[in-house]
Amino acid sequence: MSGSILLNLLALVSLLPAALLAFRPVAARDGVFWGAIIFAAAGSGAWAWLQLSQSWQTDLGVALWVSIATTLLLFAALAAFSRVGWRLAPLVMPYLLLLGLLASVISGHGQPMVASAPAVWLDLHILVSVLTYGLLTLAAMASLAVFLQERALKKKRPGPLTRMLPAVVEGESLSGCLLMAGQIILGLGIATGMATQYFETGSLLRLDHKALLSLVSFALIGALLLGHRVCGVRGRLAARVVLVAYLLVTLAYPGVKFVTQVLL
């Protein structure tokens, strides 16, 4: 037990440099930035992998660590291939650190996952779900950046944080691309979930909290993407819709685990 606590602590500490350096007023990505991101991804990824080395776990803490590691890898890719994606670091890294703290506090409430569906379907569904949550996390951070920038422009009082974040147009572009990718992967997640459900119960869909919230999120994101293309929906309204969709996905995935494992 003491060894697990130490490894958990090391994984948590690995997130700290990136969270602190995210507020460093730099003009471009540099070696320090990449070193902190790689250190955070390696620490959280190694801890998540170690916990899943035997089998998938139902533990919420494990699920959060997997989500943290996945989001870090996606953020690293975004920072590498996008001109301004790295500017989301002041929002992304402190948020992931908070998730790491939460994961550390509530871990130990789960058990190995047992399912009657073929292992390939279960593995595919879980991987797609984790990837979806990582993409939507980044989309939500980009939308939050847009919201903060527009509020600062409206008040004509830009602050130190908003000066670090992408401009409104850049944030909207990032959010749109991430949402499109997240919508596609979320659709795959719903499809693989239905396949897994069919193998286990013989029915394609069971309208429990997770399924219902996922379907509402899918419809909400789809409506936003359509509205953006047809009516030009953007700005703070679009940002609010994205944040609501992210809240629904959070309730559908880690939220259900939190209620069943921690509150009940």
UniProtKB/TrEMBL annotation:
GO molecular function, one term: heme binding
Cellular component, GO, one term: plasma membrane
Keyword GTP-binding: no
Domain Cytochrome c assembly protein: 36-263
Keyword Iron annotated: no
Record-linked Pfam families: Cytochrom_C_asm (PF01578)
GO BP, sorted A to Z: cytochrome complex assembly
InterPro entries registered for this protein in UniProt: Cyt_c_assembly, YpjD/HemX
Keyword annotations: Membrane, Transmembrane, Transmembrane helix
Transmembrane segments: 6-24, 31-50, 62-81, 88-106, 126-148, 173-199, 211-230, 237-256
Name of the protein in question: Cytochrome c assembly protein domain-containing protein
